[in-house]
Amino acid sequence: MMDYTDRHCRYLMRLLSPSALLYTEMVTDKALLHGDPSRLLGFDPAEQPVALQLGGSNPQELALAAKLGEQFGYREINLNCGCPSDRVKSGRFGASLMAEPERVAECVSAMRAVVSLPVTVKCRIGIEPGMQDQEDADFLLHFIHTVAQAGCVVFIVHARRAVLNGLSPKENREIPPLRYDVVQQVRRALPALTFILNGGIRTVAEVDQHLLNVDGVMIGREAYQNPYLLADLHRAQVDAQWLPDRADVLRSYSEYVIRQHQSGERLNVMIRHVLGLYHGLPRARTWRRFLSEGVVRSPDSPNLLRESLRIVS
């Protein structure tokens, strides 16, 4: 979810779901160690609980980055071993790390040695090239078993292979077939571990079905494109009385946007996250057009969200 789950997006998502664990964009260890940690790690306390997702492959550098995450108040450190982009492949992290489970174990061990937070791993079911004729379940089982020996007990698994040569990140989210059965098979083989399923999950009914076979689900693109899904999930899984009004959510987010704009944040980087709030409802297209055109026409008008209520109220 690079360029999507920034702190503004997470603030909006928290208005819709009081308890879902939210994840940052992947932040590289080198960016934290050589850049401005406050800019990269700062977030509003209202976003909690939030997990910090790190990218990297150097155990010592990841340990330093994890320590920074703990100091900033994150609830979990997650190592990304699933991103298939060319940039992470050339940097020897992301999905390419699945070919080096021993190195991942070293990274996990180094981070666990310096933080008291849970250290988790996000991965794919496998990678191409690099599987050497292994079946998906055998490859994933070896990877997870190796990393678990370093003390990682929670694995978030995107149920597709990552194709490292020839497919774009977008194609890697769509073309490799989903293999939920592989995740279920590995979970049965390693019952002491916790498995969170990711990939292609779009509805409350699908979540309910998957929870019969795994310990949790992670939803990315669908929650961004249709954020009210998080409210539906909280109502289905946690609180049957939870039914936030979209207009109230929009008002609350508008107040946040006004505060952030006064602090120098650009309007367009905050408005874009709310465009899916009325997904599938009457006048949603007109409302989105009003906001999109309004940001271009009046980039310094923080009251734009309030004004848009007249279209959907």
- Count the E strands: 7
Helix/strand structural class? alpha/beta
SSE order, one letter for each helix or strand: HEHHEHEHHEHEHHEHEHHHHHH
Query: Helical proportion?
Result: 40-55%
Features:
alpha/beta; TIM Barrel; Four Helix Bundle (Hemerythrin (Met), subunit A)
Task: Describe the secondary structure blueprint for this structure.
Blueprint (H helix, E strand, L loop, with lengths): L6 H10 L5 E7 H6 L2 H5 L8 E6 L3 H13 L4 E6 L4 H5 L10 H12 L6 E10 L7 H13 L5 E10 L5 H4 L7 H10 L4 E5 L5 H7 L5 E3 L2 H5 L2 H10 L8 H17 L4 H5 L12 H14 L6 H9 L1
Parallel strand pairs: 1-2, 2-3, 3-4, 4-5, 5-6, 6-7
Helix pairs in contact: 1-13, 4-6, 6-7, 7-9, 13-16, 15-16
Descriptive notes:
- With 313 residues, this protein is of the alpha/beta class.
- The protein has 2 domains: 7-236, Aldolase class I (TIM Barrel, Alpha-Beta Barrel), CATH 3.20.20.70; 246-312, Four Helix Bundle (Hemerythrin (Met), subunit A) (Up-down Bundle), CATH 1.20.120.1460.
- Helices cover 46% and strands 15% of the residues.
- The chain has helices spanning 7-16, 29-34, 37-41, 59-71, 86-90, 101-112, 136-148, 169-172, 180-189, 204-210, 221-225, 228-237, 246-262, 267-271, 284-297, 304-312, and strands at 22-28, 50-55, 76-81, 119-128, 154-163, 194-198, 216-218.
- It has a 7-stranded parallel beta sheet.
- The longest helix has 17 residues, at 246-262.
- It is globular.
- The mean pLDDT is 92.
